[in-house]
Specification:
alpha/beta, 50 strands
């Protein structure tokens, strides 16, 4: 009887205890000499009785018996049913693949071993773990790992409860180990290094020290302590780990997927299980509960997807070489494909080539940034499968771009939460589907009447794609074009209209980089009295209410977006206080509050910021989370219709669009993120301006202003001028602008053209009654402002944008050109109140919104100047916008574009009030961003790319010479006009020198004004003394000083000396002369002198002394060379220096000549060679200095420090004060190196090859300077790379090509010329080879070889820049030949500079937009190559 009673509890027997590996730390010693401690008989009896009673404690009631293969398992009842798996998306346990995995998991569970599932990104592994938990009726806890997960999320958090009591809240991991639950850890590869070891001891020994002072220990050890009465009674701090606790970890393999590699100690604690991608693809498809489509389209596509996966997996040496360039399809590809084809049957005629391309982009969006070879390979496979050739995903004129050729036909309401959508097809029956809908009234469809949008075929096609994805129960991601330089894709309008036609309440969540994974889900809140709690984020509120949530800019948070994968894919997520959203729950369970449901109508639409390349964020994880919809830019006809609605004349519209089309096509991958886009919004802004002021139709000036042409690199500026000329948009003479005048309540700007036509622009002065306090205290006051034509014209343009067109503006310019003063003057004239904030490297998003303070235990928020400006309708000047991190400036994009902003305290900025707490954007609110021009020497960020086209851009340049003269004459009327004329001319040439790269500093109006003020205040100082205030910065740059001398002399400004000599001479004049009179003045013959490390003065024994005689030194007399070893220089009187006998002087000269000869012999160079190399070096000094500064700046940016959040020490982070109240440790921030986003390549050298033309024609036609300029360019490159402080950042070489071959080595990759003689030999070689080269051309072969060899190098970027003077017609080189050679490897960036006969080929720039350059003047070769290199590298 006793035996039968104990049988059900055999699991609690000692045999089970021994077998169960939760007792890993329990050791059994069989050694006979081991000491044995025998307690007393009474104690042993008590312990034995207690042990028997524990053994007889019944387990939870069994709910049944599970038989899985050869394993039988009694399934226990759950103690906390709310922690059981409630997912609707469990896997099919009858599927062979799933069953095999489940069998393995059950084996490991019975052995008590933790499991690590190695799976490609996607939901399969998580659903497998959930299915297993459901199968064995196990309670579970879940943690999604990402970069922000720290010790708090893995151990215990802190909360302050009412009354001020601090309580500790167990993390899911601690709850799991205490209550014997299954712990699922997903995204191990995303957790930063040093985080996962927190769990090492818990995994290995089931031990963990907790912050509340308790200690989790192994259950066996706890039993031992309990048996020996060693637990300490009421002071017991030990907590036993539950014996049923187990872990399933999930991660993608690294590589090939991005992430951190596994820590070996952490890895060793798991039993691994590889999840075959092919099996997961098919298993997820089967789990859709959609019958397998019978169409041949699905069968062919399924086979193609599976074969692609097999082809990508190399298993041998040959496979590794021939691995497919076509990336494997995402894990959800088959599930999406089968659901789509089942719901929308494809016509019997099949899909067109373009429809097929769009379908592939939908199920495999990474193809949008895949190399061309991937598309070619996929096209070949579709042809072999009988699907036809793969076309372009772009829209053609006469087709519907809905998926599979469908288009939305009708939408009608069915009930409170659903609608009926009818999809039509030209070759198939209509499809009618029931879809979730919001509670608001549906916008009538088809869209008719007086519309705020243009419902074109393109727009309706994209709307159809949205509705199709929605009907299939997927959340949507709108994928921007790979090159974000096209026309508008109607992103915001599309999202808004989709929500309206389905009656959704819409919420926009603007994502910024500082958002952590937890902040996406919940926000900490401090209640009255100081208690802390959590409140749902807008995303969670939307999930409960069934809203449409627009996640705008999701790409900026990188892999952290993956923390939302479970919510998006399974509609489940962990909340606070043990709450969770699940996909199924009973009404009784919901009433208890722990479980909640996402509303059936809840949908998410994700859009990108377009500030990051697709390859940085459009990875498998994103593709699996959403149903990707590739966007389509507007056609020319659609843009034309929009522009026509502005009232702009049709002939101007055609001209403008023709130019825009060519300009967009000219933008290459290298400069797409650096130069200003000309998208639809910009074109519309231009058209509105022209419609409002038809007399101001200088399209050339307007386009140049919009594109910030003044600040384009030299190469890009040349291309822009050529495109404008080609479009017949010619420049006009500038107009003359009179000073603005305020007449009554109107500000009047008057301008006069060169034809004496006068125009007036009237701007209403601000109505003071709209902001009484602001007018009283926030209108800037300037007691004087010197008007000039250029700045008056700029103020007029700003006034039109701000007051008449309602635009927000950004002003870019060099330092000292008056950006702040111009805006302040305009606000003064308009009586416009303005706020001001200045950004810097440490500015955070929270600081832009409010300041935080802690008063009486409560957090208090004080609105920032930005929020005040929004509220009261003021102009806000955001100064130094380029100095703040790009993700901080990015918040102005949504604010300017849509009047929307989400504050971290839960409030929202909105155009209209939707909630009581909303901050409504005042109609008078305007943003004015001020920044320096992009690029070196200004040390700002490329922030314009994150602003998009939401700002009207203006470049602020120095005034023209006439305006500058007028301004200076007003400032200092007593200075003669001729001097001012010469100074203005000189500064004009100095600025031109900067623009052409000859000088490296942009001399501004500020310097000239300060110069004039000095001359006015101190007329007794010479002009040279005054100029030193400006030029002493360059005192150690002799090449710059020489150029300055040349420019000043050209304008008749005779300055005796600038630079070091001038400084010393001035010092002599303005201070007492200090001379040293040596006691001995007799001279012998010049000599070197002895060398030691001591300081010497006078005498004639030691070298390197000062004030001596005969020896090499400083400040003495009779020596043959200068030699300084440090210390003060004691100068002997000039009279003594002059009183040196002629034969001693001659001897000194002879010794100097001998020394020079010896140095040249060491360099293996003659004096004439040294002189010739020196002349080349002198010519290229300015270019070299500019290039050097750029390369050094780029290297420095890679080690630039940023604010690191969630630190254990540093400065208190005001955004985490609430966490600090609860006692969290990670509430600090400090400066440090930013960690790269997952998926970003490791920083490696940049691999560069320069290819020079050394053919016979280079020597034959050298009279135009082509050979000399090429040699100068080579010297510029060699000298620059040799001087870099971080030479390891660039792996470079130089090759030549001639009629004799394509690969003439000049500088080898592993042997850069470190000595001057080596660089001279390269120059000599370049000069000699063309003398003896045979006729012929190897340009194509040289580029091909360069691309091949450069592409094989392990680098983080690859570049090939070639120069050729080939006569393309003579050598039968076609555009296709060049394009093929330069596109040979898509990852290698190429550029071709054509000179001589090559420059005569007009097709170069058209066939190779952004990469082919025609240089008619060979003197521009160094400038062009430097500009190309700058554009390529600084991306």
């Amino acid at each position: 009887m006793l035996s039968s009673t104990l049988c059900p509890y055999i699991r609690r027997s000692p045999l089970w205890t021994l077998l169960h590996p939760y007792n890993r730390s329990y050791r059994i010693s069989l050694s006979p000499i081991a000491p044995v401690i025998r307690p007393s008989t009474g104690v042993m009896a008590q312990r034995r009785l207690k042990h028997i009673l524990q053994e007889l404690t019944p387990l939870p009631e069994s709910v049944g018996t599970l038989k899985l293969g050869d394993i039988t398992y009694e399934v226990p009842a759950a103690l906390t049913p709310s922690r059981l798996s409630r997912s609707k998306d469990l896997l099919d346990i009858n599927d062979a693949v799933n069953r095999d995995h489940l069998h393995f998991l059950l084996q490991k569970h019975l052995l008590g071993q933790d499991v690590f599932l190695v799976s490609q990104p996607g939901p399969y592994a998580r659903r497998l773990a959930m299915t297993f938990a459901s199968l064995i009726n196990a309670e579970y806890e879940y943690i999604a790992l990402h970069r922000d997960v720290g010790e708090t999320e893995l151990k215990q958090g802190r909360e302050i409860k009412r009354g001020g009591n601090l309580v500790y809240v167990d993390s899911p991991a601690v709850s799991a180990v205490k209550h014997g639950r299954l712990l699922i850890l997903e995204g191990i590869e995303k957790a930063e290094r040093g985080i996962m070891p927190v769990l090492n001891n818990l995994l290995e020994n089931r031990e963990m020290n907790l912050d509340d002072g308790t200690h989790i220990i192994h259950p066996q050890r706890y039993a031992q302590l309990e048996a020996s009465n060693s637990l300490g009674g009421s002071h017991n701090n030990f907590v036993p780990a539950h014996k049923n606790f187990c872990v399933i970890a999930i991660a993608a393999p690294v590589p090939p997927y991005p992430g951190y590699p596994l820590d070996p100690p952490f890895r060793s604690r798991f039993q691994s299980r590889f999840v075959d991608p092919v099996g997961s693809l098919t298993a997820l498809r089967a789990a859709t509960l959609v019958s397998v489509p019978t169409s041949s389209l699905y069968t062919k596509l399924r086979n193609l997807i599976l074969s692609t996966q097999f082809a990508h997996e190399s298993r041998n040496a040959l496979g590794a070489i021939s691995r497919s360039s076509l990336p494997p399809f995402p894990q959800t590809a088959l599930a999406k494909l089968s659901s789509l084809i089942a719901a929308f049957p494809s016509p019997e005629a099949g899909l067109t080539s373009n429809q097929l391309a769009r379908l592939f982009l939908t199920i495999h969006p990474s193809l949008a940034h895949a190399p061309f070879q991937a598309w070619a390979l996929l096209s070949r496979q579709t042809e072999e499968a009988g699907l036809g050739e793969l076309g372009t995903p772009s829209m053609s004129q006469d087709e519907d771009i809905g998926l599979l050729g469908y288009r939305v036909f009708a939408i009608k309401r069915l009930d409170e939460t659903s609608a009926e959508v009818t999809f039509a097809h030209s070759d198939a029956p209509p499809v009618v589907l029931r879809v979730p809908a919001g509670k608001k009234s549906l916008r009538p469809f088809p869209l008719e009447g007086n519309l705020e949008l243009h419902p074109t075929r393109r727009f309706l096609g994209l709307l159809t794609c949205f509705l199709q994805a929605h009907a299939l129960s997927w959340d949507i991601s709108l994928i921007p074009p790979a090159i974000p330089s096209m026309a508008s894709t109607s992103t915001s309008t599309l999202v808004r209209v989709f929500g309206q036609v389905l009656g959704y309440e819409q919420e926009v969540v603007h994502i910024y980089k500082e958002l952590g994974g937890r902040e996406l889900v919940m926000r900490r809140k401090i209640e009255d009295g100081g208690a802390t709690t959590w409140e749902p984020s807008p995303l969670i509120e939307g999930a409960w209410a069934g809203q449409l949530i627009h996640l705008s800019g999701l790409d900026v948070i990188g892999s952290t977006a993956g923390s939302l994968a479970r919510l998006i894919q399974d509609r489940e997520i962990e909340l606070w206080d043990n709450k969770r959203i699940v996909s199924e729950a009973s009404s009784e369970e919901l009433a208890k509050g722990e479980l909640s449901l996402a509303h059936s109508s809840f949908r998410i639409i994700s859009t990108a910021s377009k500030s990051l390349p697709l390859k940085d964020w459009l990875l498998d994880e994103h593709a699996n989370m959403f149903f990707p919809i590739p966007s389509q830019p507007m056609s020319r006809e659609e843009e034309s219709d929009i522009l026509r609605a502005t009232g702009c004349p049709q002939h101007i519209i055609e001209c403008l669009l023709s130019f825009a089309e060519k300009y967009r096509q000219s933008i290459s991958d290298d400069n797409v993120l650096k130069i200003r886009k000309l998208g639809t919004r910009s074109v519309v802004r231009i058209a509105k301006r022209l419609a409002l002021f038809p007399h101001d139709d200088d399209l050339n000036a307007i386009i140049n202003r919009s594109l910030l042409a003044d600040f384009l690199p030299a190469v890009e500026k040349m291309k822009l001028d050529a495109l404008l000329s080609e479009a017949k948009i010619e420049p006009r003479p500038p107009v003359s602008n009179a000073s603005p005048v305020v007449q009554e309540k109107t500000l009047i700007f008057t301008s006069k053209s060169s034809a004496d036509d006068t125009f007036e622009v009237s701007i209403p002065v601000f109505d003071a009654s709209q902001d009484v306090d602001g007018v009283a205290s926030h209108v800037p006051y300037m007691d004087h402002f010197y008007d000039n034509s250029l700045q008056s014209g700029l103020m007029c343009d700003l006034a039109i944008d701000l007051e008449l067109l309602g635009e927000h503006v950004v002003l870019l310019g060099n330092q000292g050109v008056g950006k702040n003063k111009i805006v302040d003057r305009l606000c003064q004239l308009l009586r416009r109140p303005r706020e001001y904030i200045q950004l810097h490297r440490d500015t955070t998003v929270n600081q832009l919104m409010f300041t935080t303070s802690l008063e009486g235990g409560l957090l208090q928020y004080t609105d920032s100047p930005l929020i005040r400006a929004i509220t009261y309708g003021r102009v806000i000047i955001v100064d130094e916008a380029d100095k703040a991190p790009e993700h901080v400036v990015a918040i102005f994009r949504s604010l300017a574009g849509h009047g929307e902003l989400t504050l971290s305290d839960g409030r929202r900025v909105r155009p209209l009030r939707e909630r009581e707490s909303d901050i409504v954007v005042h109609p008078n609110f305007r943003l004015v961003l001020l920044a320096n021009r992009p690029g070196y020497p200004f040390l700002g960020n490329h922030f314009m790319q994150v602003l998009g086209e939401n700002f009207s851009a203006h470049s602020v340049s120095n005034p023209d010479q006439a305006s500058e003269r007028k301004l200076l004459q007003q400032l200092a009327p007593e200075i003669d006009e001729d001097t001012i004329l010469r100074l203005v001319g000189a500064f004009h040439d100095l600025r031109h020198g900067y623009d052409t790269g000859v000088l490296n500093y942009p001399y501004s109006l500020r310097e000239l004004i300060n110069l004039i003020r000095h001359m006015r205040a101190y007329p007794q100082d010479s002009l040279g003394d005054a100029l030193r205030n400006i030029f002493d910065f360059d005192i150690y740059k002799p090449e710059i000083i020489d150029k300055l001398d040349e420019i000043l002399e050209h304008h008749g400004l005779q300055i005796p000396h600038l630079g070091l000599d001038a400084a010393r001479e001035a010092a002599k004049k303005k201070s007492q002369d200090i001379e040293f009179e040596p006691s001995k003045i007799n001279l012998n013959e010049p000599k070197e002198g002895k060398h030691d490390d001591k300081e010497h003065s006078a005498g004639n024994t030691y070298a390197g002394g000062t004030g001596g005689r005969d020896t090499a030194g400083m400040g003495g007399r009779g020596g043959y060379k200068r030699l300084w070893k440090g210390g003060d220089v004691k100068q002997v009187p000039d009279a003594l220096k002059d009183n040196v006998l002629d034969h001693i002087k001659e001897k000194a000269r002879e010794m100097a000549r001998e020394e020079l000869k010896r140095r040249l012999e060491e360099l293996d160079m003659s004096a004439s060679e040294a002189k010739r190399y020196g002349s080349i070096l002198t010519v290229t000094q300015a270019h070299m200095l500019t290039l050097y500064n750029l390369l050094e700046h780029l290297a420095a940016k890679e080690v630039e420090r940023v604010w690191l959040k969630r630190q254990m020490d540093g400065e208190l982070d005001d955004s985490r004060l609430a966490e600090g109240l609860t006692g969290e440790a990670t509430v600090y921030k400090r400066r440090g190196m930013e960690k790269s986003e997952l998926g970003r390549p490791q920083i490696k050298p940049k691999r560069i090859r320069f290819i020079f033309d050394l053919s016979g024609s280079m020597y034959r036609f050298q009279y135009d300077g082509r050979l000399q300029r090429s040699m100068e360019t080579a010297v510029m490159l060699m000298e620059t790379f040799d001087r870099l402080s971080r030479k390891e950042k660039y792996a470079w070489d130089i090759y030549g090509h001639s009629g004799d071959g394509p690969d003439i080595p000049l500088v080898l990759l592993d042997k850069p010329p470190t000595e001057l003689r080596d660089r001279w030999k390269v120059v000599e070689k370049m000069y000699m080879i063309p003398q003896y080269a045979f006729a012929g051309d190897y340009t194509i072969e040289a580029i091909e070889k360069g691309v091949n060899e450069v592409g094989q190098y392990d680098a983080d970027d690859w570049f090939v820049i070639a120069i050729t003077d080939a006569n393309f017609r003579r050598y039968q080189i076609t555009p296709a030949d060049l394009t093929s050679a330069m596109n040979r490897d898509p990852k290698v960036h190429t550029a071709l500079i054509c000179i001589g006969e090559g420059a005569e080929a007009a097709w170069i720039t058209k066939s190779l937009p952004g990469r082919g350059f025609r240089v008619g003047n060979t003197a521009d070769i160094p400038t062009i190559l430097r500009s190309i290199l700058s554009s390529m590298l600084d991306r």
